[in-house]
Design a protein that fits this description.
This protein is an all-alpha fold. It is built from 9 helices and no strands. The protein has helices at 4-32, 36-52, 56-71, 76-100, 102-109, 115-128, 130-149, 153-173, 179-193.
């Protein structure tokens, strides 16, 4: 059933997240220039975040949860435990894979760049690889909340929290150098989870 409140919550969360994302990009460019090495690394991490997190988990988990709850309510808790273990194991494996293959990935996304820039990007991938596990966990918990209570608020506004914390980290700690951008992504993703 279509809920106007749910539509408004999702739409407003997406709107505010996109506006804050624009400001995040402005601050990154202001403090660090174009930051090619960061943006290249971020695209790799973001692809995996989308793969195991944002949307993917919801599209699978919510219908299964509802079906199991209807057919066998006593099976809901074991289903959730098994699902969480699977999501955590998959995202941890992907995160570890990103960490271990950071250098070849950086080399692939920055062809022709100096070795120092490739290493900078590889280090950024290694730092941000943690966010794959965090976003997957957040998406899992948000999916359960949506399926169980029909509440879209935490799912819709989690990216807003992430952007606010990312911007705050950049503003407060930009003097620490380029890697603060990668840590800001991790801090923002942790904020989404919390």
């Amino acid at each position: 059933m279509l809920s106007l409140r749910g539509v408004f919550v999702n739409a407003s969360g997406t709107f505010f997240s996109r506006i804050l994302g624009l400001f995040k990009n402005i601050f990154v460019n202001f403090y660090f220039g174009l930051a090619d090495t960061f943006w290249g690394a971020f695209q790799i991490i973001n692809t995996f975040r989308i793969f195991v997190g944002e949307g993917a988990i919801n599209n699978i988990l919510i219908p299964l949860y509802k079906k199991i709850k209807e057919e066998s309510p006593s099976s809901v808790k074991p289903f959730l435990v098994k699902s969480f273990v699977f999501v955590f194991a998959l995202s941890s494996t992907l995160s570890l894979g990103l960490y271990l293959t950071a250098y070849p990935l950086a080399k692939a996304i920055l062809p022709g760049f100096r070795e120092s820039k490739v290493l900078e990007s590889a280090n950024s991938i290694m730092i941000m690889s943690l966010s794959v596990v965090l976003i997957s966990t957040q998406s899992f918990l948000a999916s359960i909340r949506i399926a169980k209570y029909g509440s879209f608020f935490s799912f819709a506004y989690a990216p807003v929290v992430a952007n606010v914390l990312t911007i705050a980290t950049i503003l407060l700690l930009n003097h620490l150098g380029i890697y603060i951008l990668s840590w800001a992504v991790v801090v923002g993703t942790l904020g989404m989870l919390l």
